[in-house]
Amino acid sequence: MEPRSGASVERLMRELGSEISNERRARIVARGGASEYGDPELYARVEEVFRRVLDARDHNALLLPQLLDDEDDYTLQLRLRYASHRRLIGPLLLFIKRTILLPINRWLYEYSLENFRRQQRVNRLLFACIEELAIENARLRQDAAGSAERRRNQPA
Amino acid sequence: MKLAAVIHRFGTDFAGGSEGHCRAIMTRLAAHHDVTIITTCAKDHITWANEYPEGASSLGPLKIVRFPVTRTRSMHRFADISDDVFSGGAPDDEEVRWFRENGPEAPALLDYVKARVHAFDLVLFWSFRYYQTFFGLPLAAGRSVLVPTAEEDPVIRMRAVSRFFPLASAFLFLTPEERDLVAAHCPEPLAPYEIVGSGLEPAAPRVDASALERLGIRTPFILYLGRIDPNKGCETLLRHFTRYIGETGRNVQLVMAGPANMPVPDHPQVKLLGFVEERVREAVLSNASVLTVPSPFESLSLALLEAWNHGVPALVNARCAVLKGQSIRANGGLYYGNFDEFSRELSHLLDHPDTARELGASGLAYVEREYRWPHVMEKIEAFLARVRHSA
Questions:
Q1: A-B interface: how many C-beta pairs under 8 angstroms?
Q2: What are the extents of the domains in chain A?
Q3: Residue B354: its chain A contacts at CB < 8 A?
Q4: pLDDT of B209-268, one tens digit each?
Q5: Do strands B62-67 and B55-59 pair parallel, antiparallel, or not at all (unpaired)?
Q6: DSSP letters of B150-167?
Q7: Complex ipTM tops 0.85
């Protein structure tokens, strides 16, 4: 791209963004990605959907997890917890677990903790993608229903 | 006016962040007002160990009262509760406990605020995420001015925070994005506010690049300025940069000036300077080709403003609404959301020096317009007078 006088961030971002997007599309197609991406307009729409997901600020505020019978069953438990069901010696066992077992386990656990966190992020992102597609689908259905309604109401 | 500022730690050891912001503003306010800083004895932001002596002291025109931290922070316990709370399912009392675990827990500071609040016309609280502000601001009802320094991180999404924001009598925000963020998490209309940012002095004359040679720095270089920390996006920056060098083979350095809180890979084109004195800071700022700010969470990036103060264009993380918003408003930098964008935009800035210069000049004009101290202090003085009048 040739530089122009009066650099504008928004113009540069638009132009560079378009170039980057075209290159990305070509790269995916060349690697054997979805053949539908041969259509630049269709690819742009797909990218737009994913961008909306990524730009959504709160992946904790999603619908699907709230519809699950018990959200905890589907959530990675990142905290290392110790419990005892024994009423009398339970506190003593917990004390031993926390002071002896916890420090030993913790350094092993911390190897994998960051991966669990990543998995948690991926899960939320996938939930968000599904939700975005569901929203798209609902919009299309609304539009289709509206179009059908208009056609019915048109005089013959 | 009699003013107090409540902050988690305070002193000349902290150049930037909310501590530097508080010191710069309160020192300037002390030219016309009676100013007291209410803080802790902590110096280390990880442990909060008591290092400053307890009690009254002074720093220039500022009176300081310090209170001991009653327990150091357990990072294991803090990480555990953070995982619980940030996943969104924690009960209310667990969220409140998060603020205790975050610390610095100093109950005597809260007692002091409660007992002495009427001795002050206004009490300014810095950083909502820390103990002294979260538990202290409700004790100063009617006189509190919150400087939230809010970022778009998981803390802001807590229900406890939505209950906290309406308690502030007034706000001082750093950017319009920060105001929007707080408004989005405040269930009631925002109390009176002003967007003040921070101030900068005009940059010193440009330092010749040869002064950097003995540090092993050669032009062109990309500058990262600040704490080198995964939370500041530095892991991603290093991955992007080393991949960029691998793919393009360009002879450009990444210079990282700041204390490192994480391992930095040994790479011939990554130059780690550690904490730098003012002279070196000025030298790297005035000779950098691009300043990069990779942090996903910022309420205001002083490094970004400093770069523009030196006419240096920026390349910032687009995931941070504040950085993106400032880059657009200033017309002073490009923003990236992934490696492809980082790579292309960095190459563009390096390959088109005229464009880079124009963006840097726009950034400088923005700083001149919005971030010179007289302008910033005028806004703060006028706002505090209004708030006091209505308090």
A1: 61
A2: 1-56, 59-156
A3: 3, 7
A4: 777 888 889 889 999 999 899 989 999 999 999 999 999 999 999 999 998 989 898 999
A5: antiparallel
A6: --SSGGGG-HHHHHHGGG
A7: no
